[in-house]
Structure formats: structure tokens, C-alpha cells
């Protein structure tokens, strides 16, 4: 029954409703796929027994006609969401043996909707990275291969790289991700799948291991726009336990997919065409603009003048918040402890041993920019520029309904192909970070292949809490692009 | 601004991160590189711009000041590296 893993989430849902197969059969097929793809290293922890238990319960509910919106659908969970009784590591040594006694709101919502969790997927340590290479549990491999260089192991992007690779390799129908500066959208682009970072406040952050609290947001990753619409509906909702969770109703996102974008104005920001942008990415973007035109929308050139300051702004705000959030890992209440002669020595040894290089680097940068005498020059300055960046978008959205940009400046690169300079790695998120700073919804969908045969994504950005327009535009582009390519070994 | 080895030692201490002496030079170079990169913000005129502390346009909600959770000592201690008699155990702080 390997065919069951090729279904979209919507097809699987409809198949379950028609009783073509059971949730147990669907889950068993996915568990076998997970086991057969262990070389990709997508999962930190597999939970097959729990999955089968939930699938059985789902079958019982379906039989009684009481199924939820995602009843019996197997998904993967980024290992940043606390799951009660299931180890949650953030792909860090410091949380290697942490078993949460509570469930994050988003994973609880998915459970309530009937989703079946297959396991916890790997990520860059504490979600800090764009390659999944900073995971304590080793890099994740992208299932896609270069056309003429099948030996090169490619990164899946990051930080939600395990989730993206699992969905692309047909190990799960969908997966949760989190996005702070591009961590859903960039891996979605690298792995040829769809991922949406919703508006900040749309999904509760309660029970998600924090990185940069003013930016972190959970969202779904799946193989079609319809599938992320289904999953976002199940994940979202107001939560009094997160004071930044927005008290707004969750629309029926699937109903927004009308296929009609006639008359919509779509902004094309001229600052996203910097000198040196790859001609391949430029063509992908132009093709996307043509698809919108053909569908009756009007492309409008817009200007977001503060775009070039987004990356430096982000690399003050995010490390500052990271250094504060990660202060809690002290070897006292949970996580790793390395003994020391004094309490302070125990803290310092624990944290030096428990955190990887990139995390330590960001803690140090954050501590520096927040330290006495520098706070105004760095952190307060960055917060001011952040407002200017957000204002750019607010102005643009007075005249346009959505914005179209590339998701990432390149296709997936190979493990070990980077130059070791952290700033070069950060450039991966150059097109996604501005949206994060402004708190806006952004979706990546695959619309073409690179000359190497690797997927490339475009990003659709919307107004705050207008994911419906984002999804509607994306679905029209999805149909027009007709992206049917699949990773190596899944052809036919 | 460039960071010297002493500054790195100071911020590592503030962050409670043990750094070996032979790592200081490399870290100072790496962190200086990052600080140079973010310092391009200095060229932006932000006079009269209020710092953005939240992208959510809403007042922070308040709740009734009442106990709504608790009575779960076992759960709280379940992940503790060391515990005794219902307390977290740490190295001796007061001589």
C-alpha cells in the first residue's frame, strides 16, 4: 500500500471518509516509509506505537461519524513543540533527554482535530540556522538530488529541515514547522513543498521552545496549498496562555481557495531584484508574475525602501531575544547538567557543553548588544528600524492585496559547500526576514526547477490576518505552474 | 566597533558560557565581523521613530489574579538533574 503515502492530505481525508482505507492502514504505510528512509535522518524520535494507537482511535471516531478536520491523517511534528510524554530536544544536547510533562497548544489542537503524530522531526539547534547542519543529531538530507551530481548530499534548508524533507520524501502528509526569519519558507522552497508562516499571533506559541519571541510563529508544511489550508485551520486559534495570541476567529481557509483572483493587485518589490540575483531566480519570479497576469490579477511595481536593513535588524533583534530566552538552560530544573565547584561554574560548564557553536555565537552577540552602554546603539536602534521596515509594508498594502517575491536566493546547496562565514549563511533568509520583522503571513510554493533539477519557490506575502488572500493567490499559481516533479527515487 | 579578547571574556561571563582562553581570539574575530555587519543600521535616520516592541496591534490582555494551576510538584521535578525532598538541588551557594 505504498500508494497511500503518495496521496495529498485532502485526498487521504476524502479516502478515509469513503472508507477506501482505514486510518490504521494509512498510518502503517507511513510508518513503513519512515523506517525505510532513516538514511535521510529526518526524525530525532519516531513514535510508531503512539501513532498506531491514535490511528485506531481515529478509526473508531470515523466509524461513529465523529471525525475531526484532520481525523486519521499522519503528520510529523517539529521537535520544537513540547509533546507530553514524548522526548522534545530542539535538536540540542542540552535538551537531549527532556520529556515535557505538558503538550504545546498547537500540537494539542492538531491532536484534537484527529491528526496522527508519526514522530518528532529534526531542526537546526534551537531553530537557529538555514541548513539543518547545526542539529546535535547530525544533518538532515534533502531527498532531492542534482541532475548530474547524484552523489552530492544536499541540505533540506532550515530550520524546519526535518519536517520539509519528511513531507517531500512522502514520509508524512504534512508537518509542523516554526518560522522566525524564514524557517518554514526556505526549507519548503529547498524541498519543493508548500509552507506558510501565518501572521504573528495566528497560532499560539505556548509550549513551543522559544528562540526569538517577537518573531517566532508556527505554521504548516505540506505538498499542496489546499493541504496547508486544512492544517493551518487545525493549528490556529486564540489561546489565553499566550498573551500575544490574537483573539480573532479562525476562518475556513479551504473555502478561500476560490480560484478567482481577477482584479487583485499584486505588488512586485523592486528592492528584491538586487544586483547579482541569479538569472534563474529572476526568471522564476517573472514567470510567476506572468501566471498572475494570465489569471486576471494586476502586477504593480512597489518599493520597500528599507529592505536592505532587514538582515542587520534581524541579527540584532533575534540574538538579543535568543540570549534572554536561552538563559533558562542552567542545569537546575531540566536538561543537561555538568557539575562545577560553584553554582556559577556549574552554569557556565553546563551551557558551554550543552549548546552548539551557532547557538553559543548568537547568545554572545545577543548578550553584547543588550549589555550596559550598548543597548540604545544596537537593540533600541534595531527596534526603530524594524518599525520603518514594517511601515514599508503597511504603505504598500494600501495599494496592493498581496506581494510576490522569490523565497530564497538559490536552490538547495550541498552539505559542506558553505564558506563557514555565518553572515553568508544568513543571506539565505534575505527575502523572508523582512516579512518576519513585520509579522506578516508569507507562503512559499514550488513553481519551477533549477538547471540542476532542484525545486525553486516563490513567496506570496499578505496583509496581517489575511492568510485567505495569500492562500487563494498561491493556489491559482500552483495550478498554473503545474509543478509535478518529485524527489529522487519517487518517480512513477 | 571591534571586540577584543577581554570584551569576549566579559560577555561570555555575563552569558554564563565557559570559553577557553584559546577560543577567545577566534571568537573576537567572528563576533567583530557580525557587529560590523549590523552596524550599518547607524546610517538610517530614526529620529522621531518609536521602537517597535510588538507587531501585534493590541493591548496586553489581563486576567484575574487568581491561582489557576499548580499542585503538580512531581511533574515539575520530573526532569530535574538532581533533586531531594521535593526541591531542586544545586551546588552549595552559602558557606
Descriptive overview:
The complex is a heterodimer of chains A (492) and B (95). Chain A has 492 residues and is an alpha/beta fold. Chain A is built from 15 helices and 11 strands. Chain A has helices spanning 9-17, 23-36, 48-63, 105-112, 161-168, 185-191, 225-235, 279-294, 310-325, 343-354, 357-370, 376-396, 422-426, 433-438, 467-481, and strands at residues 43-46, 74-78, 116-121, 174-179, 194-197, 217-222, 265-269, 298-302, 402-406, 442-449, 455-461. Chain A has an 11-stranded mixed sheet, with helices on both faces. In chain A, α9 (310-325) crosses α12. The longest helix of chain A has 21 residues, at 376-396. Chain A is globular. Chain A starts with 8 loop residues before the first helix and ends in an 11-residue tail after the last helix. The mean pLDDT of chain A is 96. Chain B is mainly alpha-helical and 95 residues long. Chain B is built from 3 helices and 2 strands. Chain B has a two-stranded antiparallel ribbon with strand order 1-2. Chain B is flat. The model of chain B has no long low-confidence stretch (mean pLDDT 93).
Low-confidence stretches of chain B: none
Radius of gyration of chain B: 22 Å
Relative strand content of chain B: under 5%
Enter the CATH topology name of chain A: Amidase signature (AS) enzymes
Report low-confidence residues of chain A grouped into runs of 5 or more.
none
| N-to-C series of helices and strands of chain A | HHEHEHEHEHEEHEHEHHHHEHHEEH
| Percent in strands of chain A | 5-15%
Structural class of chain B: mainly alpha
Strand neighbour order, sheet with most strands of chain B = 1-2
Rg measurement of chain A, Å? 21 Å
The N- to C-terminal Cα distance of chain A equals: 15 Å
Order of helices and strands of chain B: HHHEE
Structural class of chain A: alpha/beta
CATH class of chain A: Alpha Beta
Q: Helix content range of the residues of chain A, please?
A: 25-40%
The CATH homology group name of chain A: Amidase signature (AS) domain
- Number of beta-strand segments of chain A: 11
- Work out the oligomeric state of the chains in this entry: heterodimer
Sheet bearing the most strands of chain B, described? 2 strands, antiparallel
Amino acid at each position: 500500500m505504498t500508494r497511500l503515502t503518495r496521496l495529498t492530505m485532502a485526498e487521504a481525508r476524502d479516502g478515509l471518509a469513503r472508507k477506501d482505507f482505514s486510518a490504521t492502514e494509512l498510518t502503517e504505510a507511513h510508518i513503513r516509509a519512515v523506517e525505510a528512509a532513516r538514511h535521510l535522518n529526518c526524525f530525532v524520535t519516531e513514535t510508531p506505537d503512539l501513532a498506531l494507537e491514535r490511528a485506531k482511535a481515529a478509526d473508531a471516531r470515523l466509524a461513529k461519524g465523529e471525525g475531526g478536520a484532520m481525523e486519521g491523517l499522519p503528520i510529523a511534528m517539529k521537535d520544537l513543540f513540547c509533546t507530553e510524554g514524548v522526548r522534545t530536544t530542539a535538536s540540542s544536547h542540552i535538551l537531549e533527554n527532556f520529556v515535557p510533562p505538558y503538550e504545546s497548544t498547537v500540537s494539542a489542537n492538531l491532536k484534537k482535530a484527529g491528526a496522527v503524530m508519526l514522530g518528532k522531526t529534526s531542526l537546526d539547534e534551537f531553530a537557529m540556522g538555514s541548513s539543518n547542519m547545526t542539529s546535535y543529531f547530525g544533518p538532515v538530507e534533502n531527498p532531492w538530488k542534482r541532475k548530474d551530481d547524484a552523489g552530492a548530499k544536499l541540505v533540506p534548508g532550515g530550520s524546519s529541515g526535518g519536517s520539509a524533507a519528511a513531507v517531500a520524501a512522502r514520509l508524512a502528509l504534512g508537518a509542523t514547522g516554526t518560522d522566525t526569519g524564514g524557517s518554514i519558507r526556505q526549507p519548503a522552497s529547498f524541498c519543493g513543498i508548500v509552507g506558510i508562516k501565518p501572521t504573528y499571533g495566528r497560532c499560539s506559541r505556548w509550549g513551543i521552545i522559544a528562540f526569538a519571541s517577537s518573531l517566532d510563529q508556527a505554521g504548516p508544511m505540506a505538498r499542496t496549498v489546499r493541504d496547508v489550508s486544512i492544517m493551518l485551520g487545525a493549528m490556529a486559534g486564540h489561546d489565553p496562555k499566550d498573551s500575544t495570541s490574537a483573539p480573532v476567529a479562525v476562518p475556513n481557509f479551504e473555502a478561500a481557495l476560490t480560484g478567482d483572483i481577477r482584479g487583485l493587485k499584486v505588488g512586485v518589490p523592486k528592492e528584491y531584484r538586487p544586483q547579482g540575483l541569479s538569472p534563474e531566480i529572476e526568471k522564476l519570479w517573472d514567470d510567476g508574475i506572468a501566471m498572475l497576469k494570465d489569471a486576471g490579477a494586476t502586477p504593480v511595481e512597489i518599493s520597500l525602501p528599507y529592505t536592505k536593513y532587514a538582515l542587520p535588524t534581524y541579527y540584532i533583534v533575534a540574538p538579543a531575544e535568543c540570549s534572554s530566552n536561552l538563559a533558562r538552560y542552567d542545569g537546575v530544573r531540566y536538561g543537561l547538567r555538568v557539575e562545577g565547584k560553584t553554582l556559577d561554574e556549574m552554569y557556565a560548564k553546563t551551557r558551554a557543553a550543552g549548546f552548539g557553536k551557532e547557538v553559543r555565537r548568537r547568545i554572545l552577540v545577543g548578550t553584547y548588544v543588550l549589555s550596559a552602554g550598548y543597548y540604545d546603539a544596537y537593540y533600541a536602534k534595531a527596534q526603530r528600524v524594524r518599525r520603518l521596515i514594517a511601515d514599508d509594508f503597511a504603505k504598500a498594502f494600501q495599494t496592493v492585496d498581496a506581494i510576490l517575491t522569490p523565497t530564497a536566493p538559490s536552490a538547495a546547496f550541498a552539505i559542506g559547500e558553505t564558506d563557514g562565514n555565518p553572515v553568508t549563511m544568513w543571506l539565505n533568509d534575505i527575502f523572508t526576514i523582512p516579512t518576519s520583522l513585520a509579522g506578516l503571513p508569507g507562503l512559499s510554493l514550488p513553481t519551477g526547477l533549477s538547471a540542476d533539477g532542484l525545486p525553486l519557490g516563490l513567496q506570496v506575502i499578505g496583509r496581517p490576518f489575511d492568510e485567505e488572500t495569500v492562500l487563494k493567490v498561491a493556489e491559482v499559481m500552483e495550478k498554473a505552474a503545474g509543478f509535478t516533479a518529485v524527489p529522487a527515487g519517487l518517480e512513477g | 566597533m571591534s571586540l577584543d579578547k577581554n570584551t569576549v571574556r566579559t560577555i561570555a561571563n555575563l552569558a554564563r558560557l565557559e570559553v577557553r582562553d584559546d577560543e577567545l581570539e577566534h571568537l573576537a574575530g567572528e563576533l567583530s565581523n557580525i557587529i560590523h555587519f549590523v552596524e550599518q543600521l547607524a546610517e538610517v535616520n530614526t529620529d522621531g521613530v518609536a521602537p517597535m516592541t510588538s507587531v501585534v496591534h493590541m493591548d496586553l490582555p489581563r486576567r484575574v489574579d487568581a491561582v489557576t494551576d499548580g499542585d503538580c510538584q512531581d511533574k515539575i521535578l520530573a526532569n530535574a538533574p538532581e533533586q531531594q525532598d521535593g526541591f531542586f538541588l544545586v551546588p552549595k551557594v552559602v558557606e
